[in-house]
User: Fold this.
Amino acid sequence: MESTTNRSMEFRHLRYFVALAEELHYGRAAQRLAISQPPLSVAIQQLEASVGARLFDRDSKGVRLTPAGEAFRGSAQALLDRAEDACALAREVQAGEVGRLKLGFVGSTLFNGLAGWLQRFQASHPKVEVIVIELNSQDQIDALLGEELDLGLVHTDRLPPALASQPLYSEPFLACLPAGHTLATLEQIPLAALSDQPFILFSRKGSPDYHARIVEICRRHGFYPRLQHEGRHWLSVVSLVAQGLGVSIVPAAFRQAGIQGAVFRPLAETIEASAVFAAWRRDASEELRERFLAMSQG
Assistant:
């Protein structure tokens, strides 16, 4: 059974013991600890009672460690070092200097600076482990709600109440066409010219809001897209277009994907841009998130 004396030991007693063990002089140890000698003497007596052994001998020749004190000294110093390490780690975590950041992203961010943000963040936060996972917007929202992600980069700001967001950037939509398509010879593509074309769109299930926005863009210009295929990732959509299976309207970033057989043309009409938002749980710690988002601002 644990004794009551063992439960009364404090880290303060250990600090006092180590100071006296190093100075071997009550006056100097008390001065180093910024206390008077009587509290130091009382603390050492309390520690000896707690340990159940005499740690110091004191006589006219001075102060010296007993064999028990010598044996206790190394463990006492190790305990103090571990406590300081624990405190330092806690401070680093609170300051956002150490920890783990689980980041979700949509494919377009790969062509809009994500790699650079990650490199700058890792260079300035070497003790932070960053885990990146490509997911469509809806899967990221679900993962954020399930606390499986700390931060998401999504195509929508229409989020559940438990999530917050901020805009990161926007880019124009472009018409995406097979290289041999007759419309590919035009410098700009009127939206109405796509009305009778088989459409390939981002999955409604993967990003309901994003899918609905593209459909609404078409509706405002006089037609509903004739949906032929859906892809869960934009690169899949562009690849299907490149195979001649239809046309699409995609974020401009995918011009940089280098997929042979797909061409991109500006739309003749001015339409709303494709936007990317950072999303997170409102109740989540902000330090790592804010530090990462700072990298996205350049």
Q: What stands out?
A: The domain at 99-169+276-296 is CATH 3.40.190.10 (D-Maltodextrin-Binding Protein; domain 2).
